[in-house]
From TrEMBL:
Record-linked InterPro entries: RecX_HTH_1st (IPR053926), RecX_HTH_2nd (IPR053924), Regulatory_RecX (IPR003783), WH-like_DNA-bd_sf (IPR036388)
Region entry Disordered, spans: 1-65
Domain RecX first three-helical: 68-106
One Pfam family named in its UniProt record: RecX_HTH2
GO biological process, one term: regulation of DNA repair
Keywords of the record: Cytoplasm
Gene3D superfamilies reported in the protein's UniProt record: Winged helix-like DNA-binding domain superfamily/Winged helix DNA-binding domain
Record-given protein name: Regulatory protein RecX
Predominant place of localization: cytoplasm
Recorded name of the encoding gene: recX
Family: Belongs to the RecX family.
Length: 242
């Protein structure tokens, strides 16, 4: 009796299917139907036809507005942007015009886009950091999509006195290492200021005054410089490098 019980115990979970079910493989077919590799829903599927064994549900298609917001925030994290700059970035990424307008309108409402504030900050930063004058700054703002009225309001904060003072500082800085005859130095320095957007009269006067204080030779040359008479030669000076 003990031997017969031991034999029955030995035919447990690892017994052949025919011995466990009394048939020819019906138990294996049932297992396949509940998610195994041989079920009616195909390999790797459960009874509802969903993939199994991946550990997560398939990713949902991304919403266009969500993608547009992500693009804008990524752009704004680098530096402030104008509405036009963000619109261009969205277009390049294939965002529809309608979705772009909705997202940008919302960013306008919450203050993430403010072209007026951008223009004021740009003028202050570029004038103080690079010594750019109104004309050059107006061109940069236009390239970034700031409208003429907004740009003008920002540029009005930079008056003629401030421009003249900055022009003189730039000339004094360059004059420390400038070499050559007074005439050559004069042309290079005026050309440098012209490329930064300074009017010819402002540029010539700044260089004339600086040369007058440099040495006797430069002062003698400066004495004969007439800023008003030379104002029309701005294009010529702009071609000269420093």
């Amino acid at each position: 009796m003990a031997g017969r019980r031991g034999a029955r115990t030995g035919r447990g979970w690892d017994a052949a299917p025919s011995a466990r079910t009394g048939g020819s493989g019906t138990g294996r077919t049932r297992r396949g139907g509940s998610g195994g590799s041989g079920g009616p829903n195909g390999p790797g599927s459960d009874v509802a036809g969903r993939p199994v064994g991946e550990g997560s549900e398939p990713a949902k298609p991304r919403n266009e507005a969500e993608l547009a917001r992500e693009i804008c925030l990524r752009q704004l994290s680098a530096r402030p942007r104008t509405r036009a700059e963000l619109a261009t970035a969205l277009t390049r990424k294939g965002i529809s015009a309608e979705t772009a307008a909705e997202v940008l309108d919302r960013y306008d409402e919450v203050g993430l886009i403010d072209d007026a504030a951008f223009a004021r900050a740009w003028v202050t930063s570029r004038h103080q950091g690079r010594g750019l004058a109104r004309r050059a700054l107006a061109n940069e703002l236009r390239q970034r999509g700031v409208d003429a009225e907004t740009a003008t309001e920002a540029l009005d904060e930079l008056d003629e006195t401030a421009e003249a003072e900055t022009a003189r500082l730039l000339v004094d800085r360059k004059l420390r290492t400038a070499t050559g005859s007074p005439d050559a130095v004069f042309r290079r320095l005026v050309g440098m200021l012209a490329r930064k957007g300074y009017p010819a009269g402002v540029a010539i006067r700044a260089v004339k005054d600086a040369l007058a204080e440099r040495d006797a030779e430069a002062a003698e040359f400066a004495e004969y410089v007439d800023p008003d008479a030379l104002a029309d030669t701005e294009t010529e000076f702009d071609r000269d490098g420093l």
